[in-house]
Structure formats: structure tokens, C-alpha cells
Design brief:
The radius of gyration is 18 Å and the shape is globular. About 80% of the residues lie in helices and about 0% in strands. The chain has helices at about 5-25, 35-40, 45-50, 55-75, 85-105, 110-120, 120-135, 140-150, 160-175. By secondary structure, it is an all-alpha fold. α8 (about 140-150) runs antiparallel to α9. The model has no long low-confidence stretch (mean pLDDT about 95).
Length: about 180
């Protein structure tokens, strides 16, 4: 039998997965707490026991996705390969894969705007962690420039394959 802590963690995971489904389907502004509760098969009061509002759910989801991708990227550094190959892997994990997920959403641009408005402190924390990871593969003086260039690669919301190709070109210029 699962403990209360395990049930709580499972319920939180259900809420975040349901929120991801709703945010990707409807966008942040059109997703309601009722949508998330219904998708998670929970009552709205139970949802409020776990999260005080939609912004808190969005923040937790964004943080969860980032931390999951970061763990995968760190694990990939343990695999054999040259620095350019490792950089390619971590960029695809941290940038290409999330971009692919978001770009399929009807309200993709709204997602980026919601991040900047709702969770600037989380974005800042993630930026520091991401740059620290890049610092394992690039000279310190290149990390910020590489990261800024990487951000610019999706400004025109290209198809996923084009974005992934752009990442490869950027890596070839820096390594």
C-alpha cells in the first residue's frame, strides 16, 4: 500500500501532466482550473489543496520539465563522445526537445510570453543552471554568447527540423 507521501507525489504528478496537456491544447490564458481538474479526474477543491492558483501550477510544471531535462542532459555527459557531440546532445535535450513539444501547440507563442510574465525568477534560476552546464563544454567567455545565439535560433518559430539544424550549425561555429 502506498504511503501518504507517495500518494501525494502521484497526485501532484497527475496534476502537472494534466496541466501540460491543457496548456499545450488551449494555451495558458484559455486553460482554466476546471480544465486541469477535469483532465486530472480531480475535484477543483482537491486541486486547490495542491496548488493555490493556475500560475502556481504553471510555475511547477515549467520547473518540473526543466529539471527533468537537466537530469537527462547531465546523464548524457557521462556518455562517450567529443565535446561537440556532447554539446549537440545537451542542446537537443535542453532546447530541441522542449521546442518540439511547444511548437506543436496551437498557442506556442503565448507560452513564451506567459513564461516571461509569470515566472521570471524561475527563468533566471534555470538560465544560471543551463549556463553552468554549458560551462562544462565551452570556454567561460563563450557561454553567454552561445546561449544568447541559441535563444535567437527560434525567434521566427521555425519548423522543428530547421531549429535542430540551426543548433548544429551554431555548435559547429563554437567548437
Amino acid at each position: 500500500m502506498a504511503s501518504a507521501v507517495e500518494r501525494d507525489a502521484a497526485r501532484r504528478r497527475e496534476i502537472l501532466e494534466s496541466a501540460k496537456t491543457c496548456f499545450l491544447r488551449f494555451g495558458y490564458s484559455k486553460t482554466s482550473l476546471d480544465d486541469i481538474a477535469k483532465t486530472a479526474k480531480l475535484s477543483r477543491p482537491l486541486l486547490y489543496r495542491k496548488f493555490p492558483n493556475k500560475g502556481a501550477i504553471f510555475a511547477a510544471l515549467y520547473d518540473d520539465v526543466f529539471e527533468t531535462q537537466l537530469r537527462c542532459a547531465l546523464d548524457s555527459l557521462a556518455k562517450p563522445g567529443s565535446k561537440p557531440q556532447q554539446l549537440e546532445r545537451i542542446c537537443q535535450i535542453m532546447c530541441g526537445d522542449p521546442y518540439e513539444l511547444i511548437s506543436r501547440a496551437p498557442m506556442a507563442q503565448e507560452f513564451y510570453e506567459a513564461c516571461e510574465v509569470l515566472i521570471p525568477e524561475i527563468l533566471g534560476r534555470h538560465k544560471r543552471k543551463w549556463r553552468a552546464l554549458l560551462g562544462k563544454l565551452l570556454p567561460k567567455r563563450h557561454v553567454e554568447v552561445f546561449d544568447l545565439a541559441l535563444d535567437g535560433l527560434y525567434a521566427d518559430m521555425p519548423p522543428v527540423a530547421v531549429y535542430r539544424q540551426r543548433i548544429g550549425v551554431l555548435i559547429s561555429r563554437f567548437t
